[in-house]
Amino acid sequence: MDIKPDKSIDIKGLVCPMTFVRSKLAIESIGSGAVLEIVLDYEEASRSVPRSMEEQGHKPLLVEKINDTDWRLLIRKGSG
User: Fold this and answer.
1) Under 8 Å CB-to-CB from 20, ≥6 apart: which residues?
2) For the chain, what are the domain ranges?
3) Which of 38, 41, 46, 57 could form a disulfide with 73 if both were Cys (CB 3.0 to 4.6 A apart)?
4) What is the mean pLDDT of the chain?
5) Is the pLDDT of residue 59 over 90?
């Protein structure tokens, strides 16, 4: 999937709930339809952040493990 994110954040080293808090603040700072890239190293957050984003009206586009410790998420901001 070759989607260029409009904004990227690196939240490696953080655990829940801070992973969601930082992700939520970042997605609030971009426009509707824009794509946020999140790089994290907390496995639970690779599942909980996309789920929480979807509950907030955003669309998870990609969840991929990029190496032994890190995940990359792409979230499209909803219009809500």
Assistant:
1) 45, 48, 49, 52
2) 7-76
3) 38
4) 96
5) yes
Contact by Cβ (8 Å): 22, 53 = no
Residue located via tokens 């339809």? 33
Give Cα 4 distance to the centre of its chain.
14
- Rounded to 5°, the CA angle 75-45-7 comes to 30
Q: Which CATH homologous superfamily contains domain 7-76?
A: TusA-like domain (3.30.110.40)
Which candidate in 3, 16, 18, 25 is catalytic? 16
- Length reported for the chain: 80
Residue 1: pLDDT band with limits 50, 70, 90: low
Structure tokens at 11: 């939240």
Q: What are the CA-CA distances from residue 17 to residues 9, 20, 45, 47, 52 (Å)?
A: 16, 6, 9, 12, 11
Euclidean distance between the first and final Cα of the chain, in Å? 25
